[in-house]
Design brief:
This protein is of the alpha/beta class. The chain has a single domain, classed as NAD(P)-binding Rossmann-like Domain (Rossmann fold), CATH 3.40.50.720. It contains 5 helices and 10 strands, in the order E-H-E-E-H-E-H-E-H-E-E-H-E-E-E. The chain has helices spanning 16-27, 62-72, 96-121, 145-164, 202-214, and strands spanning 7-11, 31-36, 49-53, 78-81, 127-132, 170-177, 190-192, 223-226, 233-236, 242-244. A 7-stranded parallel β-sheet has the order 3-2-1-4-5-6-8, sandwiched between helices. It has a 3-stranded antiparallel β-sheet with strand order 7-9-10, with no helix packed on it. Strand 5 (127-132), helix 4 (145-164) and strand 6 (170-177) form a beta-alpha-beta unit. Helix 2 packs parallel to helix 3 (96-121) and helix 3 (96-121) packs parallel to helix 4 (145-164). Bound molecules: NADP nicotinamide-adenine-dinucleotide phosphate (NAP). Residues 12, 14-18, 36-37, 41, 54-57, 82-86, 105, 132, 134, 177, 179-180, 182-184 line the site of NADP nicotinamide-adenine-dinucleotide phosphate. NADP nicotinamide-adenine-dinucleotide phosphate binds at residues 12, 14-18, 36-37, 41, 54-57, 82-86, 105, 132, 134, 177, 179-180, 182-184.
Protein backbone atom coordinates (compact mmCIF):
# COMPACT_ATOMS: atom_id res chain seq x y z
CA UNK A 1 0.00 0.00 0.00
CA UNK A 2 1.33 3.46 -0.92
CA UNK A 3 1.64 6.08 1.82
CA UNK A 4 -0.10 8.58 -0.50
CA UNK A 5 -3.42 7.62 -2.04
CA UNK A 6 -3.79 9.11 -5.50
CA UNK A 7 -6.59 9.50 -7.98
CA UNK A 8 -5.15 8.39 -11.29
CA UNK A 9 -6.47 8.72 -14.83
CA UNK A 10 -5.16 5.85 -16.99
CA UNK A 11 -5.81 6.19 -20.72
CA UNK A 12 -5.96 2.94 -22.67
CA UNK A 13 -6.84 1.00 -19.50
CA UNK A 14 -8.82 -1.65 -21.40
CA UNK A 15 -5.80 -3.62 -22.66
CA UNK A 16 -2.09 -4.36 -22.40
CA UNK A 17 0.08 -1.86 -20.55
CA UNK A 18 -2.80 0.41 -19.47
CA UNK A 19 -4.72 -2.54 -18.04
CA UNK A 20 -1.66 -3.74 -16.10
CA UNK A 21 -1.03 -0.21 -14.79
CA UNK A 22 -4.67 0.17 -13.70
CA UNK A 23 -4.61 -3.20 -11.91
CA UNK A 24 -1.34 -2.37 -10.16
CA UNK A 25 -2.55 1.02 -8.98
CA UNK A 26 -5.80 -0.48 -7.66
CA UNK A 27 -3.80 -3.17 -5.83
CA UNK A 28 -1.69 -0.41 -4.27
CA UNK A 29 -4.81 1.31 -2.92
CA UNK A 30 -5.21 4.17 -5.39
CA UNK A 31 -8.39 5.32 -7.11
CA UNK A 32 -8.29 4.70 -10.86
CA UNK A 33 -10.30 6.21 -13.69
CA UNK A 34 -9.75 4.25 -16.89
CA UNK A 35 -10.51 5.32 -20.42
CA UNK A 36 -11.06 3.32 -23.60
CA UNK A 37 -13.11 3.94 -26.70
CA UNK A 38 -15.85 1.68 -25.31
CA UNK A 39 -16.42 1.42 -21.57
CA UNK A 40 -18.03 -1.98 -22.21
CA UNK A 41 -14.50 -3.36 -22.67
CA UNK A 42 -13.98 -3.20 -18.88
CA UNK A 43 -15.42 -6.53 -17.84
CA UNK A 44 -14.35 -6.64 -14.22
CA UNK A 45 -15.28 -3.69 -12.01
CA UNK A 46 -13.66 -2.60 -8.77
CA UNK A 47 -15.09 -0.26 -6.08
CA UNK A 48 -12.21 2.20 -6.62
CA UNK A 49 -12.45 2.08 -10.43
CA UNK A 50 -14.45 4.33 -12.73
CA UNK A 51 -14.43 4.55 -16.52
CA UNK A 52 -15.06 7.09 -19.23
CA UNK A 53 -15.25 6.60 -22.99
CA UNK A 54 -12.56 8.51 -24.88
CA UNK A 55 -11.55 8.23 -28.51
CA UNK A 56 -8.25 10.05 -28.96
CA UNK A 57 -8.85 10.16 -32.72
CA UNK A 58 -11.70 12.63 -31.99
CA UNK A 59 -9.91 15.74 -30.66
CA UNK A 60 -13.11 17.75 -30.21
CA UNK A 61 -14.14 15.40 -27.36
CA UNK A 62 -10.97 15.91 -25.31
CA UNK A 63 -11.52 19.29 -23.61
CA UNK A 64 -15.16 18.53 -22.62
CA UNK A 65 -14.09 15.18 -21.14
CA UNK A 66 -11.23 16.81 -19.22
CA UNK A 67 -13.68 19.38 -17.78
CA UNK A 68 -16.08 16.60 -16.77
CA UNK A 69 -13.29 14.55 -15.16
CA UNK A 70 -12.00 17.45 -13.08
CA UNK A 71 -15.55 18.29 -12.02
CA UNK A 72 -16.29 14.68 -11.01
CA UNK A 73 -12.84 14.08 -9.46
CA UNK A 74 -11.33 17.36 -8.23
CA UNK A 75 -8.67 15.27 -6.44
CA UNK A 76 -7.40 13.81 -9.76
CA UNK A 77 -3.63 14.30 -9.41
CA UNK A 78 -1.98 11.74 -11.70
CA UNK A 79 -2.34 10.76 -15.35
CA UNK A 80 -0.74 7.73 -16.99
CA UNK A 81 -1.01 8.11 -20.77
CA UNK A 82 -1.04 4.52 -22.10
CA UNK A 83 -3.48 4.70 -25.03
CA UNK A 84 -1.89 4.35 -28.44
CA UNK A 85 -1.38 1.96 -31.30
CA UNK A 86 1.23 0.83 -33.78
CA UNK A 87 1.14 0.98 -37.56
CA UNK A 88 4.23 0.10 -39.53
CA UNK A 89 5.22 0.03 -43.20
CA UNK A 90 7.10 2.15 -45.69
CA UNK A 91 5.93 5.75 -45.87
CA UNK A 92 4.31 5.21 -49.29
CA UNK A 93 2.07 2.54 -47.78
CA UNK A 94 0.38 5.10 -45.53
CA UNK A 95 -2.62 7.12 -46.69
CA UNK A 96 -2.67 10.78 -45.63
CA UNK A 97 -5.56 9.93 -43.32
CA UNK A 98 -3.54 7.13 -41.64
CA UNK A 99 -0.61 9.50 -41.05
CA UNK A 100 -2.96 12.05 -39.50
CA UNK A 101 -4.66 9.49 -37.24
CA UNK A 102 -1.47 7.85 -35.95
CA UNK A 103 0.03 11.24 -35.07
CA UNK A 104 -3.27 12.32 -33.49
CA UNK A 105 -3.74 9.28 -31.24
CA UNK A 106 -0.09 8.73 -30.29
CA UNK A 107 0.90 12.36 -29.86
CA UNK A 108 -1.42 15.31 -30.59
CA UNK A 109 -4.37 14.09 -28.52
CA UNK A 110 -2.05 13.41 -25.56
CA UNK A 111 -0.73 16.98 -25.75
CA UNK A 112 -4.34 18.25 -25.97
CA UNK A 113 -5.47 16.20 -22.96
CA UNK A 114 -2.48 17.50 -21.00
CA UNK A 115 -3.28 21.06 -22.11
CA UNK A 116 -6.88 20.66 -20.94
CA UNK A 117 -6.02 19.21 -17.50
CA UNK A 118 -2.87 21.18 -16.65
CA UNK A 119 -4.30 24.52 -15.39
CA UNK A 120 -5.98 22.74 -12.45
CA UNK A 121 -3.25 20.12 -11.94
CA UNK A 122 -0.63 22.85 -11.45
CA UNK A 123 -2.38 24.05 -8.32
CA UNK A 124 -2.48 20.67 -6.54
CA UNK A 125 0.07 19.79 -3.83
CA UNK A 126 1.43 17.01 -6.05
CA UNK A 127 0.94 15.79 -9.60
CA UNK A 128 2.50 13.15 -11.84
CA UNK A 129 2.15 12.98 -15.61
CA UNK A 130 3.53 9.68 -16.91
CA UNK A 131 3.66 9.03 -20.66
CA UNK A 132 4.27 5.66 -22.32
CA UNK A 133 6.70 6.37 -25.14
CA UNK A 134 8.65 3.58 -26.82
CA UNK A 135 12.12 2.52 -27.86
CA UNK A 136 10.86 4.08 -31.13
CA UNK A 137 11.16 7.47 -29.38
CA UNK A 138 14.93 6.96 -29.22
CA UNK A 139 15.88 5.65 -32.66
CA UNK A 140 14.19 5.87 -36.06
CA UNK A 141 14.04 2.62 -38.02
CA UNK A 142 12.73 1.60 -41.44
CA UNK A 143 8.99 0.82 -41.63
CA UNK A 144 8.48 3.03 -38.58
CA UNK A 145 8.61 6.57 -39.96
CA UNK A 146 5.23 7.75 -38.64
CA UNK A 147 5.19 5.64 -35.45
CA UNK A 148 8.71 6.84 -34.58
CA UNK A 149 7.73 10.42 -35.42
CA UNK A 150 4.76 10.20 -33.04
CA UNK A 151 6.97 8.86 -30.23
CA UNK A 152 9.85 11.29 -30.92
CA UNK A 153 7.24 14.07 -30.73
CA UNK A 154 6.02 12.72 -27.40
CA UNK A 155 9.59 12.66 -26.09
CA UNK A 156 10.29 16.27 -27.15
CA UNK A 157 6.96 17.28 -25.64
CA UNK A 158 7.71 15.66 -22.27
CA UNK A 159 11.20 17.22 -22.12
CA UNK A 160 9.80 20.70 -22.78
CA UNK A 161 6.81 20.22 -20.48
CA UNK A 162 9.07 19.05 -17.64
CA UNK A 163 11.08 22.23 -18.04
CA UNK A 164 7.93 24.38 -18.17
CA UNK A 165 6.55 22.71 -15.04
CA UNK A 166 9.84 23.05 -13.18
CA UNK A 167 8.49 25.67 -10.77
CA UNK A 168 5.30 23.74 -9.95
CA UNK A 169 4.50 20.42 -8.27
CA UNK A 170 4.04 18.68 -11.65
CA UNK A 171 6.49 15.84 -12.32
CA UNK A 172 6.71 14.68 -15.95
CA UNK A 173 8.05 11.22 -16.82
CA UNK A 174 8.48 9.30 -20.07
CA UNK A 175 8.76 5.49 -20.01
CA UNK A 176 10.19 3.93 -23.18
CA UNK A 177 9.56 0.19 -23.40
CA UNK A 178 10.93 -2.15 -26.04
CA UNK A 179 8.66 -4.99 -27.17
CA UNK A 180 5.96 -5.81 -24.61
CA UNK A 181 3.80 -8.90 -25.09
CA UNK A 182 0.33 -7.32 -25.48
CA UNK A 183 -2.49 -7.21 -28.07
CA UNK A 184 -0.51 -4.30 -29.64
CA UNK A 185 0.94 -6.91 -32.03
CA UNK A 186 -2.39 -8.55 -32.95
CA UNK A 187 -2.78 -6.52 -36.15
CA UNK A 188 0.93 -6.17 -36.94
CA UNK A 189 3.12 -8.34 -39.17
CA UNK A 190 5.66 -8.99 -36.41
CA UNK A 191 5.83 -9.72 -32.71
CA UNK A 192 8.48 -10.37 -30.07
CA UNK A 193 10.00 -13.83 -29.62
CA UNK A 194 8.11 -16.07 -27.22
CA UNK A 195 10.98 -17.41 -25.16
CA UNK A 196 11.78 -16.02 -21.75
CA UNK A 197 14.00 -12.95 -22.07
CA UNK A 198 12.69 -12.07 -25.54
CA UNK A 199 9.80 -9.86 -24.45
CA UNK A 200 8.71 -7.55 -21.67
CA UNK A 201 5.48 -8.09 -19.83
CA UNK A 202 2.92 -5.35 -19.27
CA UNK A 203 3.59 -5.80 -15.54
CA UNK A 204 7.23 -4.73 -16.09
CA UNK A 205 5.94 -1.37 -17.31
CA UNK A 206 3.45 -1.24 -14.41
CA UNK A 207 6.45 -1.77 -12.07
CA UNK A 208 8.14 1.26 -13.63
CA UNK A 209 5.01 3.39 -13.23
CA UNK A 210 4.73 2.33 -9.59
CA UNK A 211 8.39 3.25 -9.01
CA UNK A 212 7.88 6.68 -10.61
CA UNK A 213 4.88 7.45 -8.39
CA UNK A 214 6.68 6.30 -5.23
CA UNK A 215 9.86 8.28 -5.90
CA UNK A 216 10.69 10.84 -3.20
CA UNK A 217 8.71 14.06 -3.54
CA UNK A 218 11.94 16.02 -3.94
CA UNK A 219 12.83 14.39 -7.26
CA UNK A 220 11.43 13.62 -10.69
CA UNK A 221 12.19 10.43 -12.61
CA UNK A 222 12.66 11.94 -16.07
CA UNK A 223 12.91 8.91 -18.36
CA UNK A 224 13.05 5.15 -18.04
CA UNK A 225 14.13 2.87 -20.91
CA UNK A 226 13.22 -0.83 -20.63
CA UNK A 227 14.06 -3.72 -22.94
CA UNK A 228 14.03 -7.51 -22.87
CA UNK A 229 17.55 -8.94 -22.44
CA UNK A 230 17.31 -10.67 -25.83
CA UNK A 231 15.79 -8.65 -28.62
CA UNK A 232 14.15 -11.08 -31.08
CA UNK A 233 11.61 -10.04 -33.71
CA UNK A 234 9.42 -12.72 -35.30
CA UNK A 235 7.77 -11.91 -38.62
CA UNK A 236 4.36 -13.45 -39.24
CA UNK A 237 3.39 -15.15 -42.50
CA UNK A 238 0.03 -14.51 -44.20
CA UNK A 239 -1.76 -17.01 -41.92
CA UNK A 240 -0.23 -15.42 -38.80
CA UNK A 241 2.38 -18.20 -38.31
CA UNK A 242 6.05 -17.26 -37.99
CA UNK A 243 7.74 -16.76 -41.38
CA UNK A 244 11.33 -16.51 -40.28
CA UNK A 245 13.25 -16.22 -37.08
CA UNK A 246 16.31 -14.17 -36.17
N1 LIG B 1 3.42 -3.45 -26.78
C1 LIG B 1 4.58 -2.93 -27.07
O1 LIG B 1 5.52 -3.63 -27.49
C2 LIG B 1 4.85 -1.47 -26.84
C3 LIG B 1 6.19 -1.04 -26.82
C4 LIG B 1 6.48 0.29 -26.63
C5 LIG B 1 5.45 1.19 -26.47
N2 LIG B 1 4.16 0.77 -26.50
C6 LIG B 1 3.11 1.78 -26.34
O2 LIG B 1 2.34 1.45 -25.20
C7 LIG B 1 1.03 1.97 -25.37
C8 LIG B 1 0.02 0.87 -25.05
O3 LIG B 1 0.24 -0.22 -25.92
P1 LIG B 1 -0.19 -1.71 -25.53
O4 LIG B 1 0.97 -2.58 -25.84
O5 LIG B 1 -0.77 -1.73 -24.18
O6 LIG B 1 -1.29 -1.96 -26.66
P2 LIG B 1 -2.78 -2.55 -26.57
O7 LIG B 1 -2.81 -3.74 -25.70
O8 LIG B 1 -3.22 -2.66 -27.98
O9 LIG B 1 -3.60 -1.37 -25.84
C9 LIG B 1 -3.81 -0.16 -26.47
C10 LIG B 1 -4.76 0.68 -25.65
O10 LIG B 1 -4.90 1.95 -26.29
C11 LIG B 1 -6.27 2.23 -26.48
N3 LIG B 1 -6.49 2.94 -27.72
C12 LIG B 1 -6.08 2.60 -28.96
N4 LIG B 1 -6.53 3.50 -29.86
C13 LIG B 1 -7.22 4.42 -29.16
C14 LIG B 1 -7.95 5.60 -29.52
N5 LIG B 1 -8.09 6.00 -30.79
N6 LIG B 1 -8.54 6.33 -28.53
C15 LIG B 1 -8.46 5.91 -27.26
N7 LIG B 1 -7.82 4.81 -26.85
C16 LIG B 1 -7.21 4.07 -27.80
C17 LIG B 1 -6.96 0.87 -26.52
O11 LIG B 1 -8.29 1.01 -26.07
P3 LIG B 1 -9.59 0.49 -26.90
O12 LIG B 1 -9.10 -0.23 -28.11
O13 LIG B 1 -10.30 -0.42 -25.92
O14 LIG B 1 -10.32 1.75 -27.17
C18 LIG B 1 -6.14 0.08 -25.51
O15 LIG B 1 -6.62 0.26 -24.21
C19 LIG B 1 0.95 2.52 -26.80
O16 LIG B 1 1.15 3.90 -26.75
C20 LIG B 1 2.13 1.87 -27.48
O17 LIG B 1 2.63 2.68 -28.52
C21 LIG B 1 3.83 -0.53 -26.68
Amino acid sequence: MHAITRTVLVTGASSGIGQAVARRLLAEGHHVIGTARDCGSFVKRHPRFGCYALDLAKPETIAPLARQLQQDFPELDTVVFCAGYGQFGSLEQFSYRQIEELMMVNFTAQAMLTRALLPKLKHLPRCNLVYIGSEAALLGRRQGSIYCASKFALRGFTQALRDECGTSCVRVTLINPGMVQTPFFDKLSFRPGEESGQFLQADDVADAVSYVLQAGEHMVVEEINLNPVNKVVRFKGKNGADKNKD
